Amino acid sequence: MTTTMNRAATAPLVAERGGAPLALDGVKYHYPARRHQAAGVGPLTLDVAAGEFLCVVGPSGSGKSTLLSLLAGFLKPQSGQIRLGGEVVRGPHPRLTLVQQEAALFPWLTVAGNVAFGLRGVPRAERSARVLEALRQVNLSGFESRRPHELSGGQRQRVALARALVTRPGLLLLDEPFSALDHATRTTLSGELLTLWRQSGVTVVFVTHQLEEALHLGQRVVALRGGQVALDAPAAQTSVDDLKALLGE
């Protein structure tokens, strides 16, 4: 395969700062025939190392959304197991966080309130410190008192990232988080995401339709086709043309 330049492929891993290994062992989930539009997956066997940045690509109907729902614990595998840090995932897990296409912020809460939402039960002083640090990481210091309607689309997505990172997850799932943004904002946030990943060491599974984005961000790329893994390769050894040919685009 053609080799392409990839910044994330050479980034040092810092898994000791929060990443957790992810393992799928014979995972299968198929929807009842003719009763659901989403595509099923499996059986899938896949390992993601602690601190790795994995990108998942594939055409519509390839099973990307089902895979994310399984990883997030929203769906239970019909067969096989998903393990995070050695522990079987049986439902939504405190060590994983999902960031979706829409920021889904609470409009009645401030930026700080939205970021702090997942820290219920954490002592107030620690909660405040962690919120401020998360906002600093996503370049939103000074925006603590703003409401979501006062923010741009890119700023709202930064708040969603801060809300995810403030819980210090072992696994960060991202479902096309930049798809609704313009090209310039998308490029900026992609760069910021790489910086956040390098600093935190969190394990990342990033789903995208954009092949260039997958190769730019990921250390590794998995291509799904018909609910199966059609490609699992280092991003630095893969090109957009390779992926287009494989996926029939």
From TrEMBL:
Keywords: ATP-binding, Nucleotide-binding, Transport. InterPro entries: AAA+_ATPase, ABC_transporter-like_ATP-bd, ABC_transporter-like_CS, ABC_transporter_ATP-bind, P-loop_NTPase. The keyword Transport applies. Pfam families: ABC_tran. GO terms for molecular function: ATP binding. PROSITE patterns: ABC_TRANSPORTER_1, ABC_TRANSPORTER_2. The keyword Protease does not apply. Residues 22-247 form the ABC transporter domain. This is ABC transporter ATP-binding protein. It comes from Deinococcus sedimenti. The lineage of its organism: Bacteria, Thermotogati, Deinococcota, Deinococci, Deinococcales.
